[in-house]
């Protein structure tokens, strides 16, 4: 499990293929990435966006015997390596010998991390090019997460009782390298990936996920009344170290102002000289993110939102003589609320469909949450034999600030 705190017909939007940015920290972002966090609504937390989108769709990972075996083999390997290293250090005669043995294990973890990052990047490129399916891509992502989590546990940190970090604690240059590898591992881990990994390993039933790939990867799903989202923009992370972290809390206030103003405390920790991990519990859920002080950008963001507490700002309304159908502001992979009322404002319990596929009923409250597809789609409800529909458009990435004027209706 990662250290960070933690149904709709398939819709594919494929743009002109672009050269995908590598997940191995290729360098600072371009000018087009100057504003990585945008707010789909001023009334809830902002989200990290992709600045380009090559493909977007819903999909479900598959149970993978090879993925399960590979993840299990990694787990056995890391446990064995720690035991073997522990024994070797206890009989080492010199400090140089101890340092060399630790460096050998760190080299192994570094190479393994590089291979995992490359595997996901290759899958992302193939998915953007249309040569693998959504299911195949999500299966790879889940398998990579499982293996990366075991490597992360092997490396550990200063708070672990027994891990490579604590064994290397007296060698600052090695612990700095461990922090760098741990930082890279965060780009292939996350709460949605954790759910994908559980499906790949056969530990849970299928989960339906919205994925967008472009200059990064965005994954989103609904788990009961909880919306879960994670975004990685690898171009926002570079390989440089920094001793100047600036003012992390001021950074949160400027980049995620609503979260800062509605949180029950923002905490942060440093990953060596490479990144800052922020965690915040706010009125609508939880936010964690990794920020690179050298690029001044967020490169990993993970969110959970409690949908019953999340406000809905309705931007699309279609009314007949008897029924009003309202849909909140959409963006690809974002949480969308649809509300059905009588002309007098009484909630209506009815079935909601998106592009002809049923996503659920509104219940006594008259509203229903779902994860938005990308592009244009139709939302429909049938009340008293009459079908009410409206068409909405969700960009492959969230809209820029200053977009549509919205009106928040009572819920």
TrEMBL record:
It holds the Pfam family DUF7094. Residues 210-311 form the DUF7094 domain. Residues 1-204 form the DUF7096 domain. Residues 25-44, 390-411 are annotated as: Disordered. Residues 315-389 form the Fibronectin-III type-like domain. This is Uncharacterized protein. It comes from Halobacterium salinarum (Halobacterium halobium).
């Amino acid at each position: 499990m990662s250290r960070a705190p933690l149904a709709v017909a398939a819709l594919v939007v494929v743009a002109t293929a672009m050269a995908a940015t590598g997940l191995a920290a290729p360098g600072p972002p371009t000018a087009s990435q100057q504003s990585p966090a945008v707010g789909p609504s001023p009334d809830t937390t902002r989200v990290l966006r992709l600045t380009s989108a090559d493909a977007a769709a819903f999909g479900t990972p598959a149970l993978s015997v090879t993925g399960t075996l590979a993840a299990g083999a990694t787990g056995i390997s890391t446990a064995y390596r720690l035991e073997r290293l522990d024994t070797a250090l206890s009989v080492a005669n010199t400090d140089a010998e101890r340092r060399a043995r630790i460096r050998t294990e760190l080299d192994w973890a570094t190479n393994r991390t590089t291979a995992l990052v490359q595997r996901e990047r290759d899958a992302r490129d193939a998915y953007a090019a249309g040569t693998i399916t959504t299911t195949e891509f999500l299966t790879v992502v889940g398998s990579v997460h499982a293996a990366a989590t075991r490597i992360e546990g092997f490396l550990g940190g200063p708070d672990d009782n027994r891990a490579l970090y604590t064994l290397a604690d007296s060698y600052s240059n090695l612990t700095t390298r461990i922090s760098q590898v741990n930082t890279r591992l965060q780009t292939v881990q996350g709460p949605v990936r954790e759910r994908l990994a559980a499906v790949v390993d056969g530990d849970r039933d299928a989960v339906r996920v919205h994925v967008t790939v472009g200059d990064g990867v965005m994954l989103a799903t609904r788990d009961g009344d909880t919306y879960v989202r994670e975004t990685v923009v690898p171009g926002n992370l570079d390989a440089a170290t920094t001793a100047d972290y600036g003012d992390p809390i001021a950074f949160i206030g400027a980049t995620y102002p609503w979260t800062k103003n509605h949180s029950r405390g923002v905490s942060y920790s440093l990953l060596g000289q490479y990144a800052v991990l922020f965690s915040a519990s706010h009125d609508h859920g939880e936010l964690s993110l990794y920020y690179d002080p050298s690029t001044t950008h967020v490169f990993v963001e993970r969110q959970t939102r409690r949908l019953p507490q999340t406000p809905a700002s309705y931007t699309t309304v279609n009314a007949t003589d008897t029924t009003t159908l309202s849909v909140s502001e959409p963006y690809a992979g974002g949480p969308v609320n649809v509300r059905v009322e009588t002309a007098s404002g009484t909630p209506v319990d009815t079935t909601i469909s998106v592009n002809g596929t049923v996503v659920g009923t509104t219940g006594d409250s008259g509203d229903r949450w779902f994860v938005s597809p990308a592009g244009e789609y139709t939302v429909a409800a049938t009340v008293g034999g009459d079908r009410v529909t409206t068409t909405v458009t969700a960009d492959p990435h969230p809209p820029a600030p200053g977009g549509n004027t919205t009106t928040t209706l009572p819920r």
